[in-house]
Amino acid sequence: MKTSLASLVLVAALGLAACTSVPARPVESAPAGSNQPAQSGTATPSANTPKEGVATFGSSYTWEDGLSLTLGQPAAYTPSKHAYTGSQFTHYIVIDVRLVNNTGSPWDPGIAHATLQSANQEGDQIFDSGKLPDQPHTTLLNGREASYKMAFAVADPSDLVLEFTPDWTHTSVLFHH
After folding, report:
1. Overall CATH class of domain 2-176
2. I need a labelling partner for 51 at 20 to 30 A (CA). Which of 28, 58, 109, 131 fits?
3. Other CB atoms within 10 Å distance of the CB of residue 45
4. Which residues of the chain form beta strands (DSSP E)?
5. Tens of pLDDT along 42-88?
6. How far apart are CA 57 and CA 160, in angstroms?
7. Could you tell me if 149 and 96 are in contact, meaning their C-beta atoms sit under 8 angstroms apart?
């Protein structure tokens, strides 16, 4: 009975989330948050105009409510000896992530989730406390931003599609080369 009730609650929550999703729109660059200066470093956006729900690495994506995501270009990564890398792949990449909250309300990045496909295979997210800080979990006030890095073990570093889901109310966005 518990499994059935839990499944019903999950299905209802997903259905509600689908009905209340915040649409997104592509932008050339995300605005800076009040706790960070204007953009610099590897997550500099390119001057492309992605389709709705699709962007390229190195560009930004902004949802209609003002939440923005910038993903840098994937770069080669060397995991520390204590990292969890999965066991399937021997190519490792790292991606800079920048989230800016201009929604007008606090936003919690703690449930943001990313998956990656490489050469038609699911990549493995690398957990490396020796080299990579944890994903941020502190709620971002309006106008604030957070930056971190994600790493993945992949089949082919030249063939990557990353799906980023900010939370239950925002639509996912796909980043590719």
Report:
1. mainly beta
2. 109
3. 21
4. 24-27, 54-56, 60-63, 67-71, 75-76, 91-101, 113-118, 121-122, 124-126, 145-154, 160-165, 173-176
5. 444 443 444 579 999 999 999 999 999 999 999 999 999 999 998 78
6. 9
7. yes
List the domain boundaries for the chain: 2-176
| 81-84: Cβ within 8 A, 24+ apart | 81/130, 82/128, 82/129, 82/130, 83/126, 83/127, 83/128, 83/130, 83/131, 84/126, 84/127, 84/128
- The residues that bridge with 100 in the sheet, in sequence order, are 68, 145
Tokens 């089949």, residue located = 155
For residue 27, how far is the Cα from the chain centroid? 16
